[in-house]
Amino acid sequence: LPCSCRELHPSPPWRNMALSSCPRYEQAKRTRILHLNDMGLTSIPTPVLSLTMLTRVDLSYNNIEELTPDIQQLVNLENLWLNGNPLNAIPSELQHCRKLKVLDLRDTLVESIPREIGRLKNLFTIDLRGTPLCEELDPFKGSTEELLSYLDVKDRRTNIALEMEDKLLSAKYLETADMVEGGIVVNALVKAVCAQFPEMDELKNCARNADRLFPQRYASPVELRALFHTNPSDGPAAKRKKWGAIATKIAEKEAVKLKVSYIKLRRENEMVKLSADMELKISAIYYDNHDPTDIEGWLRSIYSCFTPENYANEGRSDCPDLEDIKFIIQHATRIFPKESTDITGPLIRKSMLDLQRKLTEDREKCVKGIISSISAIYSDREPPQVAKLARDVAKLFERDRFATEKELEDLKKISADASLLFPAEFDSADPKAIKKLFKQREIAANASIGR
Fold it and tell me: In whole angstroms, what is the distance from residue 250 CA to residue 246 CA?
């Protein structure tokens, strides 16, 4: 509190007592609530840490600069008030207070929050008003939910990086693990690779395949010494600085190459899985009317028609081969011929393209049906405006690249019930609200059928 405020609130007579004889301490044993605010404390008194039953602790307006890691002993803590202290950091050990719900850090000197705090699933309020929060966390200052989500992601990514680094140093780079250069280059490699994989699942997959993906050359002491040469006159600090710069430059280039290798490996693994799925689908369609040994030849013939050259010949710059293979498996009964002897790669590709074209045309036909239905409702609007609204609504029902039976069925219902789904005023028409109303009506209709 400011001096003027403190003068209005004189120190209690027990302020200088031994804490064990403090009335509030004795009361806390019964109430599980302890108020030690405005007592001039510079740290949490040791006896407090033995009160593991405490659910609320108020340490506001003291002189606490550092919070002891032993705070983790208060395992039942739900509310912790530290506001008004010259506190400069929060210990990561606070993560062990898993019941914590409220953390008040107002008007402290806290600049950062440990990533481990993101593990506190019951925490719903971190009050950071009046704190000099760092640039990294400042955007989340007003939202505990967003801050905890950010810290949780950061924590999980950091743990993946640490595990990946340990795994590499204990296996692939074991021979150079004890070299200063080895530690520096592996750390730089892991950091650069993590930057290449913003998606958590991809980073996990990369970590699982680290032994296969990371470059082999840095496992050689001879290679490392050749890369990290320095002047004999350089001191330890100068060497580490130069080596750090060299490692960062190397790592950035290697990380780009590794990402390419990862994409190739992922594609190979996915293709193996798709081949197994395709084989099962073919066996199910033709049952006993084929020789199992023919399947491998059919697969080779089919895959040979899904190369970048095939797509280029069709005037396409993309190459969605895996997506198309998945499409074939999904619609196998409509794409494969009646007789197994007729199976060829070109035939399967043509049948796939014909079906994709038909599903695209069917989707467009349904969208035009919606446009026609709502044109009568919004006759005072320009056709392009009406068409855009219809397409925005239809877009919300897309489940795949190409129309599914369910999507087409829903679009037809929207067209038929347009007067019940679309508001009378065009400006009130919200695509998401229209979809929500459609779903509500669908649920109600299914419920009445069930009765």
Answer: 6
Spatial contact of 38 and 7, defined as CB atoms under 8 Å apart: no
Q: pTM, whole model, 2 decimals?
A: 0.71
Which residues, in sequence order, are bridge partners of residue 323? Answer: none
Specify which residues 237 forms β-bridges with: none
Separation of alpha carbons 203 and 199, rounded Å:
6
d(CA 421, CA 413) in angstroms, rounded, equals 10
Residue 207: closest CA among 173, 250, 258: 258
How does residue 19 score in pLDDT terms, banded at 50, 70 and 90? low
173 - beta bridge partners? Answer: none
End-to-end Cα separation, the chain, in angstroms: 66
Q: Is 212 left (phi over 0), alpha (psi -120 to 50) or beta?
A: alpha
Quick: pLDDT tens for 69-107.
999 999 999 999 999 999 999 999 999 999 999 999 999
Beta bridge partners of 325: none
Cα gap 150→144, rounded to integer Å: 10
Tell me 428's DSSP state: G
The token duo for 127 is 């009050």
How far is C-alpha 3 from the chain's CA centre? 48
